[in-house]
UniProtKB/TrEMBL annotation:
Subcellular location: Cell membrane
Keyword Aminoacyl-tRNA synthetase listed: no
Family: Belongs to the autoinducer-2 exporter (AI-2E) (TC 2.A.86) family.
UniProt-listed InterPro entries: AI-2E-like (IPR002549)
Topology relative to the membrane: Multi-pass membrane protein
GO biological process terms held by the UniProt record: transmembrane transport
Presence of keyword Membrane: yes
Protein name as annotated: Permease
Disordered, as annotated region: 357-395
UniProt biased composition (Acidic residues): 386-395
Length: 395
């Protein structure tokens, strides 16, 4: 079989397709290797990168009051120092308000917990388990024995915890110092970047970093507002239901709100457990209803309205980012996952704009109806062909 002139043979088509596949496979392998090396570098320098990232997030929150004070004529160092001192004073005031309630009600919660364990033991002795005292004692003895056998591991864990606590204090001091310097001299970064990177790289860097800064600031401020509303409503519900540690649980709810989806779930579960241990099943059920109602208000009303302009991330992307961050870097990874994902999304949007500018394409609007898929077009019956009309002189 001969091919028409000007066409390629089947072997040439297959060869071109194989060449295309091989080239893209090499590119994908190179990109995967780059991400692997990048992850390794981040892990190696994590002790340095973590304070920098936390300081940048704090700066997005504290920069508006610092900028306002500088606009009133205060020097940069004085405006930054005043803002940091007022922030630390506010944080210390919140801790001072909830600390007495924790100290005064901890014994009550412990007694209720012991009482709850006794109720569980009595329930286990009845139907359907019908456990005897000897079986329960044997079970408790086995757990105690395992704990004693793990004493060395537990002790080493305690010493590791002490070392981690020391590292935590050092990290906090570093974050505070970096935040001070970033707020005081951060406005000099863009001119320095333009001077040393040159055009047109400097303009791209400046535009991209400005967008990332705006996205991070909007995310942190909006998430703080949403978390504050959650904490107020849930804390009010806990106070009305007379649940102990209502103030502490409200603060935990506020802090947990900075880890989207997962933090709200953990804080709500903790509030339900405390209500169950202290006030019984009925109060715990009422607290569960309050938590679900507030979280539904947040998820269906507050977050879509407030976060749509700041992050523009699908909930599935948020969940996957939190899962990856928590798996790789623990709790702090879960906290930083969404801001990092939002920054990466800003990068991809900016690259998309540059590609559109190079190609001259205009992206379709989001509300444009989607075209029918190939399967829908194949299932669609072809229109009947029109019948041939008879010539006029044939009549």
């Amino acid at each position: 079989m001969t091919n028409p002139p000007g066409t390629r043979t089947r072997s040439e088509v297959y060869g071109a397709a194989g060449t295309w596949l091989a080239l893209w496979s090499l590119r994908i392998i190179a990109i995967a290797a780059m991400f692997y090396v990048l992850t390794w570098v981040i892990a190696e320098f994590w002790s340095i990168l973590l304070p920098v990232l936390l300081a940048i997030l704090l700066c997005t929150v504290l920069w508006p009051p610092v900028r306002w004070l500088r606009g009133k004529g205060l020097p940069p160092a004085l405006a930054t120092a005043v803002t940091l001192l007022l922030s630390l004073g506010l944080l210390g005031g919140v801790i001072g308000l909830i600390a007495p309630s924790i100290g005064g009600q901890s014994k009550q919660i412990a007694d209720k917990a012991v009482e709850g364990v006794g109720k569980v033991q009595k329930w286990a002795q009845g139907p359907p388990l019908n456990l005897q005292d000897e079986q329960i004692s044997k079970f408790v003895t086995s757990i105690t024995k395992k704990l004693q056998e793990s004493a060395e591991t537990i002790a080493s864990g305690v010493f590791t915890g002490v070392s981690a606590a020391g590292s935590f204090v050092i990290a906090l001091v570093m974050v505070a110092m970096l935040t001070f310097f970033f707020l005081k001299d951060g406005d000099k970064f863009m001119p320095w970047l333009r001077r040393h990177s040159g055009t047109p790289v400097a303009e791209h860097f400046a535009e991209l970093l400005t967008r990332v800064w705006g996205t991070l600031g909007g995310f942190i401020r909006t998430q703080a507002l949403v978390s504050l509303i959650d904490a107020l409503f849930i804390g009010l519900g806990l106070v009305i239901l007379q649940v102990p540690l209502a103030g502490a649980l409200a603060v935990i709810t506020f802090l947990g709100g900075f880890v989207p989806i997962v933090g709200a779930f953990v804080a709500g579960a903790l509030a339900v457990i405390v209500a169950l241990v202290t006030n019984g099943f009925g109060t715990a059920l009422a607290v569960l209803v309050v938590v679900i109602a507030v979280q539904q208000l947040e998820g269906n009303v507050l977050s879509p309205i407030l976060q749509s302009r700041s992050m523009q991330l699908h909930p599935a992307i948020v969940l996957l980012a939190i899962a990856f961050g928590s798996t790789q870097f623990g709790i702090i990874g879960a906290f930083l996952a969404v801001p990092v994902a939002a920054a990466i999304a800003v990068l991809f949007r900016y690259l998309g704009e540059l590609v559109d500018e190079k190609t001259g394409e205009t992206p379709p609007p989001d509300d444009e109806p989607s075209k029918p898929s190939l399967w829908d077009r194949l299932r669609r019956k072809p229109a009947p062909e029109p019948a041939d009309e008879a010539p006029a002189d044939a009549v």
